[in-house]
Amino acid sequence: MPFESSVVAAAPAAHATPLLAIALARGPLPPSLQPLDDAAGGAISRLLAAGDFAGRRDETAVLYPSAPVARVLLIGMGKPDEVSRTSIRRAAATAAKRARGIGVPSAAFYLPPEHRGGVSPRDVGHVVAEGLGFGAWHYAEMKRPPEEPKPELERVELLAPDDTAAVRQGHAVGAAIAAGQAVARGVQVLPGNVCTPTYLGNVARELADRHGIGVTVLDRAAIIKEGMKALMAVAQGSVEEPRFIALEYKGGTGAPVVLVGKGVTFDTGGISIKPAPNMEDMKYDMSGAAAVLGTFEAIGRLKPKVNVIGLIPSAENMPSGSAFKPGDVVGSHYGKTIEVVNTDAEGRLILADALSYARRYQPACAIDMATLTGAMVIALGHTAIGMMGTDDALLEEVRQAGERSGERAWPLPMWDEFREHNKSDIADVKNSGGRPAGSITAGWFLREFVDGFPWAHLDIAGTAYSDRDDPTRVKGPTGIGVRLCSEFVLARQAR
Ligand code: BES
Ligand code: MN
Ligand code: ZN
Questions:
Q1: What is the number of structural domains in the chain?
Q2: Predicted TM-score of the model (pTM)
Q3: How far is the CA of 344 from the centre of ligand 2 (A)?
Q4: How far is C-alpha 245 from the chain's CA centre?
Q5: Is 274 within a domain?
Q6: What is the domain-level CATH number for residue 28?
Q7: Which residue's CA lies nearest to atom 5 of ligand 1?
Q8: For residues 436 and 459, what is the distance between their CA atoms, to the nearest angstrom?
Q9: What is the mean pLDDT of each run of 10 residues along the chain (495 residues)?
Q10: What's the domain range around 379?
Q11: Rounded-to-integer distance, Cα 77 and Cα 85, Å
């Protein structure tokens, strides 16, 4: 059973649930919780008075009152004036994560109106739906079922006795985005032997058919015919056939927003092979593609009045007797020639062909998402997406969508000096500018193939997956990009 959340107009003292999660800022018991506290024999106020729970960010406490609910989980959000969309989303994620850990089939979530900060009821519904979906996600399909299985967390009800209609409206949007993010994580998590370019093509077809979205999947012959020589160069070392996926959603009249996602289903580095430690993480090198698919899931559910195109170049990067080699010069869809100095700089090659292909749509703008450079992890860690591009207004629009969605993007400069690093002695451009400013020179490489539309590049190498569980992240795939792109598209509709 897939996870779902919903909005219920009940007050917390009047709703039966095996687990009631309450998000609390610091300070005394808010009046809206008095009836619950009374019914629970003062258990919550005693806990607060004892100082055992102070409402600090990410602090949690579990109570077992005899009535009116079996369990109460308190989740801290920090100082009342610091409560934001982000802290509410985060508390909801913690609630779902803990509910899953405890092993209840359902739970309820309550945010006292006194602790909303400046966040509107609509936004509360939106971010709680996102947070619950984020925290509830897990993947166990490849494990044998445990001998004593715990019940699965199937639903969480958001209690909204006041402003129910507004909360419900926001919740519908947040839940669609959460479903999109779950789609992204569901393909990200799959190993390279399952999630091949062919598999991604099938996912795209299934998703598009389910929502009545247009889809074209080019196979090897069609990719060659289209002249995508850079994509073919990456793909030629693998027995897995490449795919080029185009999703076409028509919701409006104007020029489309184009979303491009890097779909390297496994990146060994090719002949410039990567070291063995953590190479298994390179199954996540299709996270940009997953973000595009997830965003289309959200779009398919929400049907915004905008035209959106999704482009996914997909290949597996392998070393073999047929693989491309350092020093090879290859062509491209755009026409520029590329000296391949490092076969591990493969993402920019396949994206170059996709960005060139995008020209046919005469886009209003294009945003690409890619686990493009290890240097990104050095620059911004696992905290923010690195953002580059050609158009300040677009970059600001993307930055704001990132801020709203809690998937923050931060600009890196694209001064001309950085372009020099990619100069080749033999071809128009080379595919690596070396280690200095590695994320920016990669961005500049892409820029060589962008022509005629505002463009933003999002390097998600540091944010696409997590190697640990912490309050903001769940170990494994994050589905990064889905929330940001969904927010971006929804805001374009309102312009
Ligand atoms: N997929 C990697 C980037 C990456 C590294 C993503 C770590 C996530 C975590 C990309 O294809 C790559 O290998 N980039 C090289 C570029 C270099 C050869 C110029 C890198 O970053 O080392
Ligand atoms: Mn690589
Ligand atoms: Zn890669």
A1: 2
A2: 0.98
A3: 4
A4: 19
A5: yes
A6: 3.40.220.10
A7: 374
A8: 16
A9: 92 96 97 97 96 96 92 97 97 97 97 97 98 96 90 96 98 98 98 99 98 98 99 99 99 97 99 98 99 99 98 99 98 99 99 99 98 98 97 98 98 98 98 98 98 99 94 90 98 87
A10: 182-492
A11: 11
